[in-house]
Write a structure and sequence with these properties.
Layout lengths: L8 H27 L13 E5 L9 E2 L10 H4 L4 E5 L20 E8 L12 E10 L2 E9 L8 E6 L11 E2 L11 E2 L3 E3 L10 H24 L1
Antiparallel strand pairs: 1-3, 1-10, 2-7, 3-4, 4-5, 5-6, 6-7, 7-8, 8-9
Length: 229
């Protein structure tokens, strides 16, 4: 007797190829979205998407834009800051001018919270969480993590900042913010920014191993596909 319910190898291989092709297309589109530079020049410095990691390992003591100490953000709330931030050239919040005057906006680039992150204040109207890179003076580049709230006299709230760097870069160490005086900031050793560009920076054995594994996997898939045909 002929088993009419037997699987069709050709149909199975076709379905598998279609699935792999679909996943590959989605991966390429996501990678392009994450990797495209923010500048339309050859001397680009930042990608469209940055990922903030490391908050939640310790409590954060934020300050207002005018250096007033604000209530402590506990570790559970601080972990909400971690996530994906997308470059937002049209970012606007009416309290931002208190921190970065309108005439200095050209010195600032802003990435707004997009996925897997949220502000600490979830009840106030028009709350935005953003990463801001600014160049207040020549050879002084730094990042801030800000929360902007409508109707709040303390907005923007500053949660953390990076150390100064001579050149614009996302590979920076982060530190706490203080109102000044005898209170000194300390390093936030767990906090850092990562991007899709880092996947192509072959600076660790793990990245080399993953690259070899992907190439080997692709070769095996291509070989098995030829055998199916």
């Amino acid at each position: 007797l002929v088993n009419t319910h037997a699987a069709n190898p050709g149909a199975m291989s076709g379905a598998t190829q279609a699935l792999v092709a679909t996943l590959a297309i989605v991966f390429v589109l996501v990678l392009m979205w994450a990797m495209v530079p923010t500048e339309q020049t050859l001397a680009f410095t930042f990608p469209n998407v940055v990922v903030l990691r490391g908050f939640g390992s310790e409590a954060i003591e934020p300050i207002s834009f005018d250096n007033n100490t604000l209530p402590t953000i506990e570790t559970g709330q601080a972990s909400r800051f971690n996530g994906i931030y997308q470059f937002d050239p049209l970012f606007y919040h009416k309290s931002l001018d208190r921190f970065i005057p309108w005439e200095d906006r050209e010195k600032a680039s802003i990435w707004s919270c997009t996925m897997f992150c949220s502000p600490a204040n979830t009840t106030a109207p028009d709350v935005k969480l953003a990463l801001v890179h600014t160049t207040p003076a020549e050879k002084k580049n730094l990042w801030y993590l800000l929360e902007l709230r409508d109707g709040d006299a303390n907005s923007p709230v500053i949660y953390a900042r990076s150390k100064f760097r001579k050149y614009p870069t996302y590979r920076v160490p982060w530190m706490t913010v203080t109102p000044g005086g005898d209170i000194k900031p300390h390093d936030l050793q767990e906090v850092h920014l990562i991007t899709a560009w880092d996947a192509f920076r072959f600076d660790t054995p793990l990245k080399w191993g993953c690259t070899v594994a992907v190439i080997a996997g692709g070769a095996l898939f291509w070989r098995s596909r030829r055998e199916w045909d």
